[in-house]
UniProtKB/TrEMBL annotation:
Metal-binding in keyword set: yes
SUPFAM superfamilies, per database record: Calcium ATPase, transmembrane domain M, HAD-like, Metal cation-transporting ATPase, ATP-binding domain N
One cellular component (GO) term of this entry: plasma membrane
Name under which the protein is recorded: Cation-transporting P-type ATPase C-terminal domain-containing protein
GO molecular function, one term: nucleotide binding
Entry keyword annotation includes Transmembrane helix: yes
Ranges that cross the membrane: 57-86, 457-475, 487-505, 595-615, 627-654, 675-695
Record key words, sorted: Magnesium, Membrane, Metal-binding, Transmembrane, Transmembrane helix
Localisation per UniProt entry: Membrane
Source superkingdom: Eukaryota
Gene3D superfamilies referenced in this protein's UniProt entry, alphabetically: Calcium-transporting ATPase, cytoplasmic domain N, Calcium-transporting ATPase, transmembrane domain, HAD superfamily/HAD-like
Source organism per UniProt: Citrus sinensis (Sweet orange)
């Protein structure tokens, strides 16, 4: 908008000059391009436009052209490069393959994720995060860290479920068997070596099951082995003893609280604790007490922990399934995504389809589950949520019928081994497991956050440079910052900003940031306010220096120009570090360990010194001494200091509630009083100094 306004102003002035001013034919005009054009002529045109433009219109047009190119071409290029980096990071670290450039960043602003749980395919994966014998976690190397007798009892306890699928805690048992095989536990021998005598589930808890087995061909024919497995707290109450990793047996009475604490710690960590217990008997009966505690296992149900983490990140989850609503409701309750006491709504696909537009929009806010749905119902759900103003991701693709919903969603996600070829081609991101959704969201939000900050930085630099050029050109008919100098400044901003955009800082905690709405601007009101304040601070400081700098002894016009350009460049470098929060205590150590960032920063500073000291035609005609360099650094930091002071004053002394009451009272009394912002202070100082300098006693103004 700023560039557009200045463009209209320049076009208006150019039109007036074209209609009313006679061309004098002096050396301000460009050389004619007829016949063979020499290199000298081209260089003269280049110098005329970029190095030494003459006249207000030429200066402003040159500056505006540079800003327009920087905004329209430079920023998209740097953002594109950074998105390539984030996509590569997703592929390498999380085995997620974005199939279009913006998929990762779009996932970062997703506010609703629709997950297809048809057939329970995404609900089956379970990982063993902890496996404790006694109080020792032996998850990494079970076979070598525990006693042989305990190991055999554990193998019988896990392997017994293979013989009796009726009591298996599916799908937990299948994953436990796979985990046991990966840890070199011999759970396959039970099929040949054990005979099942009796099995049943606990009457008070159907998630606890027991089995009575006998070892075939054993020396002790009368001894039978009992094995219980299931909910850890229930199993613990059935035990009187426990084994440690060395096979020693201890009474559990004095250690029960420690095991209860271990179980609670697992639950607090998002794990599902289960336990294994065993015992021996000579009676053909499964006992429910006096058992030995074998092991405690902490299971991480991938879909459950993922859904919980996504909800904590502010993302709403809607489960959809082609299965019957009653069966899907049980899955949703297990995942914690359907709570009737919280007024959550579950609908069948036909019910959702028959609602009119108004009713459908009213129910969407509380809807967390849809069962018995067709492909058209999934598509309608995605369209309705988008119409509601949300950014939608759809995770599915187990059949080709999901293709329309994948295409319609802002981000279509499929699982590599559980999707059709057509669904994979229509999706935006292909992941290896449902657990990758949370890392994608985190990196996407981090990328989006960095893009916001980068955009704010570039707009600040472009707007401040353009305003400084506009004001000085209209008053002095020349600008202290030429077009070629602006190109140099913006190149530095893109170099540093592009590098910093690729950095991920733990202190940002992007997953805690609320997701953006569909209609929300890239820069919110707070960012626009900070941008405006920073622009005003920079423009005020440099204009005051430009017009009042001649009172400093030994500072002529050329030195003042060189210092303005140097200070403006350094100011943008410092602003990069401030806006990206690189100077915070939690971030600075991370930055100092980034060798490439420090190297680029040193190269930029060294290049700026070389430009100012040796490229005098580019920097502003004269070299600077040590004191002038010091003044440049002070001027570069001053806008940042003023900005901080303004924020501190606003946060410390302006009570929002009090101001709200005053505004309400003034509105009630209809008292319209003039308001002067404290941001006008820098411009008031500039106006006063400039008027006092250029005003003559004969009531006329003289421009030099």
């Amino acid at each position: 908008n700023l560039s557009l306004a200045v463009t209209v102003l320049i076009a208006l002035v150019a039109l007036i000059r074209l209609l009313w001013r006679k061309h004098s034919g002096d050396d301000h005009e460009l050389p004619e391009l007829k016949g063979n054009v020499s290199v000298g002529t081209v260089m003269k045109i280049f110098e005329r436009f970029l190095l030494k433009p003459q006249g207000k219109i030429s200066i402003l047009v040159s500056a505006l052209t540079v800003v327009a190119i920087a905004v329209q071409h430079g920023m998209p290029f740097v953002i594109t490069v950074s998105l390539f980096f984030w996509n590569d990071k997703l592929l390498i670290n999380h085995h997620a393959k974005p199939q279009n450039l913006s998929a990762g960043a779009t996932m970062g602003i997703a506010s609703v994720i629709c997950i297809d749980v048809t057939g329970g395919l995404v609900c089956n994966r379970v990982d063993v995060s902890k496996f404790c014998i006694g109080e020792k976690d032996v998850n990494n190397d079970v076979a070598s860290e525990i006693n042989q007798a305990v190991l055999q009892a554990l193998e019988r306890g896990i392997g017994a479920s293979v013989l009796v699928p009726e009591i298996s805690l599916w799908p937990t048992t299948d994953w436990l068997v796979s985990w046991a095989k990966s840890r070199s536990l011999n759970v396959e021998f039970v099929d040949q070596n054990l005979s099942v005598l009796e099995h049943r589930k606990l009457s008070s808890n159907n998630k606890v099951c027991g089995v009575l087995v006998k070892i075939n061909g054993g020396d002790e024919d009368k001894i039978m082995h009992m094995h219980w497995s299931g909910t850890a707290s229930t199993i613990l109450n059935m035990c009187s003893y426990y084994y440690d990793s060395e096979g020693k047996s201890f009474e559990i009475k004095g250690e029960k609280r420690r095991f209860q604490k271990l179980i609670k710690d697992m639950e607090d960590s998002g794990l599902r604790p289960i336990a294994f217990a065993c015992g021996q008997t000579e009676v053909s009966e499964i006992k429910e007490n006096g058992l030995h505690l074998l092991a405690l296992a902490g299971l991480r149900e991938e879909i459950k922990s993922t859904v919980e983490a996504l909800r904590n990140a502010g993302v709403r989850i809607i489960l959809v399934s082609e299965d019957e609503l009653l069966a899907v409701t049980e899955v949703a309750c297990e995942l914690g995504n359907f709570r009737p006491e919280s007024n959550d709504i579950a609908l069948e696909g036909e019910q959702f389809r028959e609602l009119n537009s108004t009713e459908r929009m009213a129910k969407l806010d509380s809807m967390t589950l849809m069962g018995s749905c067709l492909a058209d119902d999934k598509l309608l759900l995605v369209q309705s949520v988008k119409e509601k103003g949300h950014v939608v991701a759809f995770f599915g693709g187990s059949s080709t019928r999901d293709t329309p919903a994948l295409k319609e969603a802002d981000v279509g996600i499929t699982e590599e081994n559980k999707c059709t070829e057509m669904a994979r081609e229509c999706s935006d991101i292909v992941i290896s497991a449902v657990g990758s959704l949370l890392p994608i969201l985190k990196l996407g939000r981090c990328a989006y956050c960095n893009i916001q900050k980068f955009t704010k930085l570039q707009l600040t630099g472009c707007a401040s440079g353009l305003l400084i050029t506009l004001v000085t050109t209209l008053i002095l008919e020349e600008s202290p910052i030429t077009s070629i100098q602006l190109i140099w400044v913006y190149s530095i901003m893109y170099m540093l900003g592009g590098l910093i955009m690729r950095m991920e800082f733990k202190d940002q905690e992007p997953v805690t940031n609320p997701p953006a709405r569909r209609t929300k601007s890239l820069l919110d009101k707070v960012m626009w306010k900070h941008t405006a304040v920073q622009v005003l601070c920079q423009v005020g400081v440099f204009l005051i220096f430009q017009f009042a700098g001649q009172v400093i002894p030994g500072m002529n016009r050329d030195i003042r120009k060189a210092m303005t350009f140097n200070s403006f460049t350094l100011c943008q470098v410092f602003n990069q570090f401030d806006a990206m929060r690189l100077l915070k205590k939690a971030v600075l150590p991370v930055v100092l360990k980034k060798f490439n960032v420090l190297m680029v920063f040193l190269i930029v500073i060294a290049a700026q010194v070389l430009v100012v000291e040796f490229a005098t035609s580019l920097a502003g005609y004269q070299r600077l001494n040590g004191m002038q360099w010091g003044i440049c650094f002070i001027l570069a930091v001053l806008p940042w200091g003023i900005h901080r002071a303004v924020n501190f004053i606003a946060d410390s002394f302006l009570d929002r509630s009090l101001s709200g009451i005053l505004r309400l009272e003034f509105s009630r009394r209809q008292q319209h009083r003039p308001y002067v912002s404290f941001l006008s202070i820098p411009f008031s100082m500039f106006l006063y100094i400039s008027i006092s300098h250029y005003y003559n006693p004969d009531n006329s103004f003289t421009f030099r």
